Amino acid sequence: MKNLNLVLKGASITFIGLVAARLLSYIYVLLVSRLGTEQYGMLSIAVALTSFVSTLAILGMQTGIVRYASYYLGKKDLKSVKGSILSALKLSVPTSIILSLLLLIFSEKIAVLFFHNTKIASLLKVLAVMIPFSALNENLISVFISFKRIGYVVIVKEIIDRIIKFSITALLIYLGFGLIGATYALSVTAIVISVILFYLLNKKVFRIFDKRTEAKFYTKEMFFFSMPLVFNAVLFLLVKWADVITIGIIKGAEQTGIYNVALPTASLLVVVPTALMSLFTPIMHSLYGQGKIKEIKKLSKRTTKWIFLFNFPLFILLFLFSKEIILVVFGKDYLPGALSLSVLSLGFIIFSISHIPTNVLIMIKKTNLHFKIGAFTTFVNIGLNIILIPRIGIVGGAVSTSIALTLMYIIYSYYAYKFLKLQILSKKLFNAFISSMPSLLVIYLIKGFFKTSFLSIALEFSLFMIVYLIILLSLKSFDKEDMELFNKIKMKLKGYISAEE
């Protein structure tokens, strides 16, 4: 495939950053979950609510900056570039301060009225401080994107942010500050990241407060452009936090904490597809620009195959060893979340192969349809949460999410086929099922001989992987083009790492 050479250095940076960020986020979950089910649940609820307020505070300006600053940068109109950035800050910073104060004032009422837990109020008060800085950070990151400095975005937002958050949280918990310490760590991290972003922006990218460059403002125009995008951002957060907030309201903080270890664990099934799409999306867009639909179809099938073949062993691990994983990684207090983990892993393995049809709709500029699908599946998820959570608890949240994710895959695949005749499934994809059967038999035969521990899970999974890979190779699941693709990506990543060293 000649077009594989279109995989750019920037995509390789994003690939590394996304994988590292997901792993760092999960390590953070392991840390804060040690606070206990109820305390971790309270923190999850407070973070979810603060995320909603922060999203409203930004007013969609991050997208506005990318649109306007990139446009005027292309015209080399620095006055308009500066003006568009300052216009966004002029709108979102005061709004974020007002919303921060409102959350501070009404935190007690929110905690009692919705969650019947006064302790959540103190967490909301601490996190309210974070809102203006979170809004500022999103805007500054958009400036880096406008100037095509993706490396800074990945390093600061995906890596440094998570390292600082983990380090401060670990330190404050170690010093005995517990839950409130973990909460302060989030606000301190947002402030530190603001300082880092401002420094890098002024030193390496663009001096936005340089008086030698006049600013041409677009405040009103950017407001009307960006406001509709707030709904998209809120929709995304509903997808992410609907279960957590609904469980928090109906079942309380303790059940929220238990559920919120199952959810990020199942979400590990998104790491591979997200990272691979960062490599292949530039290729697909380039091919579409050249009208090479056949090559898009070939690449789509191949990428889907990779996603599934690499994700399937992880799915088996999460689905079959949910109790063992929860017990070993999080402790016996979180064991009631094991069934939720199994159910969620089923939803996420199906969702993992929806990344290709999702990106295809964006590629062919069906963004309105993309929004409608997201809105529909989100409301299905919320509706099912309201029905199922009171009846079957956190498992109801897991069932709701898995149904919504499966619906998303079905609808996206339908429209990708309708508009581009794209069929992402292939015969080789089902080799994973064939390969897994003998592998699962091996696990079944030896599972009873070992006491549950990290070592026993690692051993059983290693045996599964050995048998799985042997059968995949014997069935010739990886052909010549796959191996060429492996080598090209490996060279790209090696080249980037060597350059950094």
Keywords:
disordered N terminus; single chain; mainly alpha; globular; 2 domains
Written account of the structure:
- With 501 residues, this protein is an all-alpha fold.
- The protein contains 21 helices and no strands.
- The protein folds into 2 domains: 1-227, no CATH class; 231-493, no CATH class.
- Helix content is 83%, strand content 0%.
- It is globular and about 70 Å long.
- The two termini are 30 Å apart.
- The model is unreliable at 1-10 and 496-501 (pLDDT under 50).
- Beta-strand percentage range: under 5%
Taking Cα atoms only, what radius of gyration do you get, to the nearest Å? 23 Å
Give helix % range.
over 70%
Mean pLDDT: 83
Total number of beta strands: 0
Q: Gap between N and C termini, in Å?
A: 30 Å
Shape: globular
Order of helices and strands: HHHHHHHHHHHHHHHHHHHHH
The count of domains is 2
| Helix/strand/pairing category | mainly alpha
User: How would a textbook summarize the main sheet?
Assistant: none
Count, helices: 21
Uncertain runs? 1-10, 496-501
